[in-house]
Amino acid sequence: MKNLVIVESPAKAKTIEKFLGKDYKVLSSYGHIRDLSKREIRPDQEADQYPAYEIPDDKKDLVRTLKKAAKEAETVWLASDEDREGEAIAWHLSEVLGLKPENTRRIVFHEITKPAILAAIENPRGIDIDRVNAQQARRVLDRIVGFELSPVLWRKIKPALSAGRVQSVAVRLICEREKEINAFTSEPYFRVTARFFTLPGHEEIKAEASRRMPDEASARALLDSISRKIAVNGEESFKVADVKVHPLTRSPQPPFTTSTLQQEASRRLGFSVNQTMMLAQRLYEDGHITYMRTDSLNLSDLALRDISAEVKSKYGNDYYKLRKYHTHSKGAQEAHEAIRPTYIDKVTVPGTDQEKRLYTLIRNRTLASQMADARLEKTLVDIEAEGIDENFRAEGEVVKFDGFMRVYQNAESNADSGLLPPLAQGQYLGVESVVATERFSAPPARYSEATLVKKMEDLGIGRPSTYAPTISTIQHRDYIKRGESEGEKRNYSVLTLSDGKISRQTMTETAGSDKGRLVPTDVGMIVNDFLTEYFPDILDYNFTARIEEKFDEIAEGKLGWKNEIKDFYDGFHPEIEKINDLRMDHKVGERRLGVDPKTGRQVAVKIGRFGPVVQIGEASDEEKPLFASLASGQSISTLTLEEALKLFDLPRTLGDFEDKTVVAAVGRFGPYVRHAGSFVSIPKEMTPETITLEEAIELIKAKRAKDAANHLKDYPEIPGLSLLNGRFGPYFAYKPEGAKKAVNYKIPKTKDPMELTVDEIRELMAAQDAAPRAKRGSRK
Fold it and tell me: In angstroms, rounded to a whole number, what is the distance separating the alpha carbons of residues 267 and 234?
């Protein structure tokens, strides 16, 4: 072949191959083809051995295929992404495949369209080794932190924990916010609103008192004074003190960067950060949007011309305004373009409903960024009554020209907040009602995935390519979880003045929901406290941001990366050795709660192998310690001795069903019912402490019915083999006698599983048994 083009993903390869002629073959590297050696990395190793890289087993066949194709090609084009990670992938390909500089070309593009691909072919360059070194520095530094710090957590807290340079700082942000919330004391106050009306005409005006009332007595006193005033002066009690009308303009927001796309997709579409990036990746690889990992606000001249034509043709010249935005984010990287559609005249694109919704969001934001300001008119009316201490204010806002709001509403750009009737200074207003509603001061809000990304960006922690993986990692490691609490019921008071009488009602509302918000687990809080105390530099926000700035300087060729890594290691490693030598009386995070009155043994709560546990007794006691897992919603930091002892009431024997005992208990994965060797999860609306035998039997029967529906067929010729219907369709599960767990086998989509013969099934199983282990067991 004349030309071999190597890209990162097969989807990208498929799209690009359509644009290039028969002289080009496009293959995918499926991401990285090699990574750092799993052995310990020390900056004092010999220069030619540092850092050591290795090709994973599951990439060796692919490397052989790429090597063979590269040898047959006259020219090899390395077309990985244009960010630092993409540059590093190109360098690894060049090194591993043994490519020669004279017949190797590096090409980059930030959109997968025919003009962009052909322009990249016309303008190749060499591999930018400074960008490669910046990526090497990131990987090596992160590996050193993980390899050195994680074993400390295993020894001092519990096995299988991990620490990371960026992930630990992200966890710190969430833990500190949780501490702020726990330390916050909510204070009640009363918000007073009134409904006035014009005389004559009876047109309604809603207004609010100029300040909050500190308590119910103050609120009642205000309503009393208004009631007395109306009783004396009637409809001439309140009058308009002042009317101010002034114009307002609202400007559009710039086109999307990675972080702002993640934030808006979360706020408007309810997408997680990871979900947004997966959808954007597909839109990019299918040629619908530009590259989705960017912190640039720039739009190309060609894009600006196309957007101008689209706005003018759809909405008219008055709606167009040329705007050029500049990036202000801390440590902004390479000057890519902002995220925009490749063809702005495409109103929608083929794909899933989610892909279409994300594309529409990107397109509308891009169009709005080049549209005219919205013009509004705001009216402020002050209303007063002689002898009443409080003034009231009414606000009205009306859109005179919608401008960019025609296609995109900013977070603060609501529709008309209300058109007030014509009012003049000194005009009397009647009072329909005055309401004082009890409200409560609110603690700082827990982070959502989107607001955490914004905070990380503001602090300069991480980069566009690292936000989503960091947030996924801290949840996967069980340091952070997505809140599920609906909140708690609370009462509040409402005082209403109407027809000269004051009434009082007690209402109920739900407050304190953390649903969908990021909440630290006990493990996350304990690990964070430990790292903050003993490794303050690693968790320092400014230190982490400075490291990112050094990566930027390495990418610009201003710093030598190996020297920077060695300087870091020389300061970091002695701290690790110091902590390893530190003797502690008990495990980090352990709380002694008191003494068990029944046995006189010590009761403590701590992090166990599978999560938080209560322990009665010590390992040194003659009698073995007793353990109980914490229930859902309980925390190491707040658990009381009484609550801890109640956990030992489990497991509970509920009674018999079908001559077998039914037991309720809590295990590693939550509360469950056990019966005849089968386990059934207890739903959230029930607890193992209160579930009845009748409720448990219903759960057992429901699970049986579900299992029966999913169990399609057995095969007497192959004992232990079943055909099951799973989440991703039918599959075979094989669990021979004596095996601890079943092995799953995929069924090709071209085959009808019910029609397969026993011999065909044996062939299918043998073929999958011979496949590499990494590819086994998945039905996706």
Answer: 48
Nearest to 456 by CA among 274, 262, 297, 296: 262
CA distance 230 to 434: 12
Write down the catalytic residue from 24, 291, 479, 731. 291
3-class state of residue 655 by DSSP? strand
CA 541 to chain centroid, in Å, comes to 20
Give the list of residues 6+ apart from residue 166 with CB closer than 8 angstroms, or none.
142, 461, 462, 466, 470, 544
pLDDT of residue 243: 95
Tokens representing 704?
């049986």
Please state the φ and ψ torsions of residue 55, each to the nearest 5 degrees. -95, 120
121: tokens are 């072919």
**Are 409 and 365 a contacting pair, CB within 8 Å?**
no
**What is the 8-class DSSP label of residue 125?**
B
Largest CA distance in the chain: 101
Average pLDDT of the segment spanning 313-341 = 81
Residue 507 in this model has a pLDDT that exceeds 80: yes
pLDDT higher than 60, residue 332: no
- Active site (annotated) includes residue 320: no
Residue 668 has pLDDT above 70, yes or no: no
In angstroms, the Cα distances linking 136 to 51, 145, 294, 571, 684 are 9, 14, 20, 20, 46
- β-bridge mates for residue 629, sequence order: 613
Q: Quick one: DSSP state of residue 540?
A: -
Tokens 């690292």: give the residue: 466
Contact between 420 and 381 (Cβ < 8 Å): yes
Pairing of strands 75-78, 104-106: parallel
Task: Return d(Cα 418, Cα 64) in angstroms, integer.
Answer: 69
Instruction: Reduce the DSSP state of residue 321 to 3 states and report it.
Output: coil
Range of weakest confidence among 279-283, 320-324, 766-770: 766-770
Spatial contact of 637 and 525, defined as CB atoms under 8 Å apart: yes
CA-based nearest residue to 525, from 460, 588, 614: 588
Q: Which residues are CB-neighbours of 536 under 8 A, at least 6 positions away? A: none
Torsion of CA 6, 11, 16, 21, to 10 degrees: 90
- SS3 string, 226-258, reads HHHHHHHHHHHCEEEEEEEEEEEEECCCCCECH
- Cα torsion through 102, 108, 114, 119, rounded to 10: -60
pLDDT at 348 over 90: yes
Collapsing DSSP states into helix, strand and coil, what is residue 681?
A: strand
Q: What is the pLDDT of residue 416?
A: 45
Q: Return the amino acid letter for 581.
A: D
Query: Do you know the residue count of the chain?
Result: 780
Tokens of 493: 């008071």
- Return the residue matching tokens 């979900």: 275
Gap between the Cα atoms of 182 and 374, Å rounded: 42
Q: What is the pLDDT of residue 537?
A: 86
Structure tokens at 72: 């047959």
Bridge partners (DSSP) listed for residue 145: none
Q: Which of 730, 699, 738, 733 is nearest to 718 (CA)?
A: 733
Instruction: Supply the DSSP symbol for 723.
Output: E
Tens of pLDDT along 366-405?
A: 999 999 999 999 999 999 999 898 999 999 988 999 999 9
Among left, alpha and beta (phi > 0; psi -120 to 50; other), residue 589 is left
Q: Is 780 helix (H, G, I), strand (E, B) or coil?
A: coil
How many degrees, rounded to 5, is the angle at CA 293 between CA 289 and CA 294? 95
